Amino acid sequence: MKTYLRYEQREPSWGVVSAANANAVFDWTGNLVLSAALEDVNVWNVKQGKLINVLRGDAGEEGLSGYDKLDKARPVVTRICRSPNGRDVAVGYEDGSVRVWHLAEASCVLTLNGHRGAITALGYNRDGSLLASGSADTDVVVWDPVAETGLYRLRGHKAPVTHVRILEHSRHLVSSSKDTFVKVWDLDTQFCVHTVVNHRGEVWGFDINDDETRMVTGSIDNELRVFRLLTSDNGRAEYRAVHSKDEVSGNDDHQTKTRTQQNKKNKKRKWQSADDKGEQEMMVEFLGSLGRKSRQRVMTIKFSPRGDLLLCQNADRTIQPFYVRTKEEVTKRVRRRIKRHRDQQQKKQQQQQQQQQQQDNDEKNQKKGDGKTVTPLDILRETTVVDEFGDLKQLKTPTKVRSIDFVPLLTPEAEAAAAEAIAAARAAEQLKEAAAAATGSSKRKRKRRSKTAAQKAGGAVSRLVVNLMNNSLAVYDILIDNASKSADSNVFTKAQRVELPGHRSGVRWNCLSKDDSKLMSASSDQVKVWSVVSKQCLATMMMEGYALCCVFVPGDQHAVIGTKEGYLEIWDIRSASMLQRIQAHDGPVWGIDLHPNERGLITGGGDNTAKMWEFELAVPEDSDSDDDDS
After folding, report:
1. Is 151 exposed, middle or buried (CB count within 10 Å of its CB: 0-12, 13-18, 19+)?
2. Is 425 helix (H, G, I), strand (E, B) or coil?
3. Residue 327, burial from CB neighbour count under 10 angstroms (0-12, 13-18, 19+)
4. Which of 143, 157, 237, 541 is the most exposed place for a label (fewest CB within 10 A)?
5. In sequence order, what are the beta bridge partners of 113?
6. Are the C-beta atoms of 345 and 257 separated by less than 8 Å?
7. Nearest alpha carbon to residue 222 among 199, 248, 244
8. Strand pairing partners for 41?
9. Residue 78 dihedral angles phi and psi, to the nearest 5°
10. Coil, strand or helix at 380
């Protein structure tokens, strides 16, 4: 059989800040952000806007070349999850593999293969001894990263898995899927012990608070469903208190007596029977729903590390926040509502009794009303989802959002690893970079003092990274204080953004310089010049029109750009300024090429014409330098 020519990728892709096929996460220090760059993972310093390191997806394939490397195509990154040890990060790929990378050395230390489809969900437990992975093949696999082996496979979903979470207070795992179900698995028996069937469509995400008493799920409708988890001691205590047979402070006329008591008795008997047998049966109880303002589906749901904030990322340009009220705030809110209801009931009774008896009954009712007190049991039974979560003003981003992530709270292991990483980075810095770092440290001190002042005022500061669909990253500071706890208060403040190293829209045209040392790429609103050797952006030319094509002029100091409006624009690359603009075609300039004699151009336009152009390189009379002009 005759062989045929095949193209081989010579250099890895560059100009990718953050691809839209995976999420972006903070490291444990909060200074670096890890984002997917097609087959690789970029490590960014968001404060400086610099690329610190790259986790190459071709690690372990150094011995392959030619046809062997082509046959083994590099898989695309689909999921990123940081490890609790503060040193490693787990990365899921399109071919179903999971690789664990060491961040400091940028080396792959572990490869796990057990899925037939792309990895769609990853999650560690708190100490990092277990790693759960969900895939498009509908399976959930639990791994032991220390022993470098798989423990068991959980099968039960009928559609791709969207999220997984290993619970800390019990040996259970929670998974969601596009089959509309949320399943709870017993890790000891490897069986599903509970299935949540409250959703009408695909379940795209969920999250559980730190004490594992509340679970919030998101689907395709405009509601967030809140559930009570009964794995922890706090969850079981709440369940038994709410469904106990004790009367609420002797108030026979209150609305708690009119609830659906038969269903609660059935649930209570089921829990008590399991508890009497010595079994820890997992149950999930539906509490209520929170309304969403967006009509698009949910993409990500996140509790903040402090537990005071809940974010819902939608499939559009909005992020809707909810603040989580403290126990004191919930108690105050519910007590006020109960008293208001009792006052209304008492006033209504008094009005009815005044028509029959004027004096005696009024005195009895007044004395009876004075004896009514609001007990903690009353508050617990009357607490609703609206009492626990408050609505805040949503954030609108410039473009659609792919993922969000909070800066985590440091564990002791992660704090030690972060200290080692910072010490190693400082030792490797040069004198000039050390001076810049000292300036940055003073800024950090001022920022830390401002945060402390905000916290003294009754607020808390969180940091959020937003992975945008236009190949950029944005970091927001979230300040919640007593004054901002309203639906009209904006709690988001943009801190940093990483966008210069890449295009914001699709690349329309590429052109190499004569010596192949530079590459020029054109997108809708900007044209960039890159160094082929260092992969760094040398110049960015912001366009007034819509760039469609471009070409280097001999000398590689100038460029001619064709636009959608039919213009030819001549730009000085070093100063990123436009020198001349010519109306070339009545329609878009679809193509441009340099004449072989390097003294002319040919363009093709949407007006069905091709035109030849001549140009000359001349030195300006008022210029003292040897720079050429065109």
Report:
1. middle
2. helix
3. exposed
4. 237
5. 97
6. no
7. 199
8. 36, 55
9. -120, -15
10. helix
Q: Are 236 and 283 in contact (CB under 8 A)?
A: no
What are the structure tokens assigned to 542, written together?
Answer: 């912001």
Identify which of 26, 34, 42, 3 has the alpha carbon closest to the alpha carbon of residue 535: 42
Name residues of the chain where pLDDT drops below 50: 1, 60-71, 247-280, 282, 365-371, 441-459, 623-630
How far from the centroid of its chain's Cα atoms is residue 539's Cα?
Answer: 30
301: amino acid identity, one letter:
I
Distance CA 69, CA 471 (A): 28
| Beta bridge partner(s), residue 90 | 81, 100
Question: Pick from 434, 418, 415: which is nearest to 426 by CA?
Answer: 434
Q: Which tens digits make up the pLDDT trace of 600-614?
A: 899 999 999 999 998
Do the beta carbons of residue 287 and residue 227 sit within 8 Å?
yes
203-226 burial by CB neighbour count: b if 16+ within 10 A, else e? bbbbbbeeebbbbbbbbbebbbbb
Amino acid at 500: L
Residue 194 to residue 284: CA distance in whole angstroms: 7
How confident is the model at residue 448, as a pLDDT? Answer: 41
CA 124 to chain centre: 17
Place of tokens 């004569």: 514
- The pLDDT, as a whole number, for residue 165 is 95
pLDDT for res 563: 93
Q: What is the pTM of this model?
A: 0.77
Of the candidates 190, 235, 199, the one whose C-alpha atom is nearest the C-alpha of residue 214 is: 235
pLDDT tens digits for range 208-228: 998 888 999 999 999 999 998
